Amino acid sequence: MKLVFAGTPEFAALALRAIIAAGHQVAMVLTQPDRASGRGLALRASPVKQLAEAMGIEVFQPPTLRDPIAQERIRAVTAEVIIVAAYGLILPQALLDMPPFGCINIHASLLPRWRGAAPVQRALLAGDRETGVCIMQMDAGLDSGPLLLSARQPINKDDTASSLHDRLAEQGARLIVEVLARLPLLARPQPETGITYAAKISKTEAALDWRLPAAQLERQVRAFNPFPGATCVIDGSVLKVWRAEVVAGVGLPGVILAAQRSGIVVACADGALLLAELQKAGGRRLSAAQFLAGTPVVEGSRCAVSTA
């Protein structure tokens, strides 16, 4: 099948790779413009662009799809369908109506739960026991189109956003290949109940607030791994917390109850959180034992909330 693929991050690159391997003709790839990243702020191509160029596929990076000239360039491809995965730009109605099979989206949640930009992180933050992938016929709404195919994915107790993302990306790649092989498929409307929205993750959400239950903070650590990384302040230094565990403990929220090789134990509103892996700004990730070897922590002192 001749198609246009629109996507930007690694989640989308896995789907693109699977579509190519299945023998479909990817006539054009749409991806967001190169972004400055790293300490040198050099422009960096998205994972989707890197794959497309390696495969000799035409890459188009318009800053918006509302431009009639951009739309005409896409129309000239005469694709049968447009596949969208974590693209990051809104598709106007002109594009939704353009190909015979419309535009089909790969979304990492069990719609209508977690419509929006950050379904993986929001599912972890909420303590959901399962999530999944939906293949959706796109309409003008926010992830509100009818469903073509879906599959469930359990959420493990130790899942981070990274580990869950990787499994969902593989699942989405398999499902989109199946959908393309079965088009046209009958789409079913999404349920009208159970709608939730997954707002984009902000760095301001990263700070661990010790006035919350330890179980909630432990989910926050996992949901924000790898981005933006949960944070706290010990002895004036802003630290990222990469791994934490809920443990027994009672004390004023934020008070350090213990500093031992297994971790730094901080009192929360309900229970305590053991900080097992930490990182100073500009440093490397360290186990609690490695961290304490170079940065002594006094029991009874306070672990503050980061404002970074």
Provide keyphrases for this structure.
25% helix; 308 residues; Methionyl-tRNA Fmet Formyltransferase, Chain A, domain 2; elongated; 29% strand; Rossmann fold; 18 strands; seven-stranded mixed beta sheet; alpha/beta; 2 domains; seven-stranded antiparallel beta sheet
Outline the structure in words.
With 308 residues, the protein is an alpha/beta fold. It folds into two domains: 2-198, Rossmann fold, CATH 3.40.50.170; 203-304, Formyl transferase, C-terminal domain (Methionyl-tRNA Fmet Formyltransferase, Chain A, domain 2). It contains eight helices and 18 strands. The strands form four sheets. Strands 5-2-1-6-7-9-10 form a seven-stranded mixed β-sheet. Strands 12, 13, 14, 15, 16, 17 and 18 form a seven-stranded antiparallel β-sheet that branches. A hairpin with a 4-residue loop joins β3 (35-37) and β4 (42-44). α1 (10-21) packs parallel to α2 (47-54), α1 packs parallel to α6 and α5 (119-125) runs antiparallel to α7 (214-223). The longest helix has 22 residues, at 161-182. The model has no long low-confidence stretch (mean pLDDT 96). Residues 200-294 form the Formyl transferase C-terminal domain. This is Methionyl-tRNA formyltransferase. One of its GO terms (cellular component) is cytosol. One of its GO terms (molecular function) is methionyl-tRNA formyltransferase activity. Its EC number is 2.1.2.9.
